[in-house]
Amino acid sequence: MSWSVGQVAAFAGVTVRTLHHYDEIGLLVPGGRSHAGHRRYGDDDLDRLQQILFYRELGFPLDEVAALLDDPDTDPREHLRRRHRLLTARIHRLQEMAAAVETAMEAKKMGINLTPEEKFEVFGDHYPDQYAEEVEQRWGDTDAYRESQRKAASYTKDDWKRINDELNTVHARVGELLGRGVPPDSEEAMDAAEEHRRLITANHYTCSHEMHTCLGEMYVADERFTAFYEAIRPGLAVYLRDAILANAARNG
């Protein structure tokens, strides 16, 4: 028995586009084709898809998933042990922060003394005034918010362009590491996460490692942040979050 790509997408809760992508990169090549050349998936294909989705749920990038499923020299236990360490660190951090979380939405900048035309030039259609009320309600009584307001009030259009360029450079660097399959707890990824934290401190507010992990969780939990990072590279929100957690653990 076999199923069409649309049927499999419905079974698994993924999009047809995702299945097409998996086929194109050789991660999940359907076992058959119809007379018209359409993809047909069998039981073995569904079993493999289940394994793929399991590893993706744990945050593994696609190239690591392929290695786990296809490379006879790959030790799945070592990959799972590393992922377990990241998840354990994440749980520990969340437990520590459960009592009181004080952070600021670094991507939603406030207090910007720019004209509407300048804001659009710097931020496009994502400039932050639309979130100012929400941010003030959530974090208006924190030191981080007040520090961010003081700094933002002094920035010119050129300052904001520089800040955006710096952050975009870090995002591109993290996305490139993800694309190369570099683990999020590698030195390269943790160094990139540290640079991300340093830029927040330099340009917005003092961002401790604990606060940084809180931001990382928000990048995954808040669909607006997730959409922003996914537009840079699929899987980037989770990857950056994991790199931030690993970097925080490295720094105690």
Overview of the structural elements:
This protein is mainly alpha-helical. The protein has 13 helices and three strands; from the N terminus they run βααββααααααααααα. The protein has helices at 5-12, 16-24, 43-57, 62-70, 76-97, 116-123, 132-139, 143-153, 157-179, 187-203, 209-221, 223-232, 236-250; strands at residues 3-4, 32-33, 39-41. The chain has a three-stranded antiparallel beta sheet. A hairpin with a 5-residue loop joins strand 2 and strand 3. Helix 1 (5-12) crosses helix 2 and helix 11 packs antiparallel against helix 13 (236-250). The longest helix is centred in the middle third of the chain and has 23 residues, at 157-179. The radius of gyration is 21 Å and the shape is elongated. The model is unreliable at 99-111 (pLDDT under 50).
Quick recap:
This protein is an all-alpha fold and 252 residues long. The chain has helices at 5-12, 16-24, 43-57, 62-70, 76-97, 116-123, 132-139, 143-153, 157-179, 187-203, 209-221, 223-232, 236-250; strands at 3-4, 32-33, 39-41.
